[in-house]
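The records we work with from here on pair a chain with its fold. Taken together, the tokens spell out the fold as the letters spell out the chain. To see the layout at work, look at the sequence and tokens printed below.
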Amino acid sequence: MAYFHDFFALCLEEKLIKLKILFTIPNFDTAGSGKALLNVAKNLDKHIFEPQIACFHNRGKYFKVVEKEGIPVHIHQTSHEMIPRFKGLINCIKLAKYFKMLKVDLIHSFHYGADYSEALASKIAGIPWVYTKKNMNWGGLSKNGWYIRSLLSKHILVQNNDMIKEFFPNSNKLTLVQRGVNLLEFKKSKKNEYLLEKYKLKSEFKIILCVANLHPAKGVEVLIESFLIISRTKPNIKLFIVGENNNEYAESLMQISRKSKHAHNIIFTGKVFDVKKFYSIADLFILPTLSKGRREGCPVSLLEAIASGVSVLGSEVSGIKDILKDYDDALFEPDNVIELSKKIEEKLFTNKNKNKKLDLKIFKHIKDNFDVKIESFKHGEIYKKILKKKEN
């Protein structure tokens, strides 16, 4: 493999040709998918690949981060409604002309929905198109869209094993590529002084942290109820819930919290652009995703917490169990308030030596298997394989 990689790079250098990869995404309004895209793009081998990005607009804080990387960004709408059909087809033909004008070799979609107009436009343009299946959505009204999207794709990158079993059991154009974490950016650090002062956090406090887009599938109510059980006997614990709280689900969570006499120990921070400082103050990170609904693709917040030296607990659902499958003590039954409360108590108040050893094992596992450089390398190998076949 190393020989093939070096030979491929040498040939491209001699011809002074790089493979142009266009990454597409609707926007950078939220950092999740955008951050994943940028991590891959900026870590590709620059001797072989020339990454470019296309998105609908230049709004959003994370767009400024993307600009600083110096990767060319095209502001253009790369997906369209396909109903009515005739109008949708005309828009795809126009989009195909745009793709051809860019003279890219391959298009990789980080679109999180079931849109297939981009795939159809790429097909018309004769450009290989791949996409990353980043979530466990498939059924309902979007089912046909996912089927067409997959049919038109040259390759599909999936993020956990359940995706393969549930959505693509007989497909021969899949590669499991799990998300990665930047180990230079996320690492154990000194507790953030600003947060300690802002929230009046005394040294004896134990801090539980949850970082998630507040959606019903995340099961944060299970975490809150477990927290309230422990608070009866352990008053010096605080729960930080980091995520957009301007929606009905978040409001329901805040109502649950307000009804308790421990409400002052549950802090909803709202959306936070830089979560590293919250990892620095946390003793335990918990992702309580429910067993039904969207579940997880490959949760980056969990990887970031582990890389930052925080103990973790996660419900045993798709995505989370792929990361923690060899570490039963870090998993709990989804939707189970009692089991989670017991696990929290074990993690924070009993058998510190055992927990420390487990944390070190999990950290090594992440370092060896979930480094963002590994993720980007796997992407590069897929691109080379597809484009080599195309040339042949």
Notes: The radius of gyration is 22 Å. The chain has two domains: 2-180+371-391, 193-369.
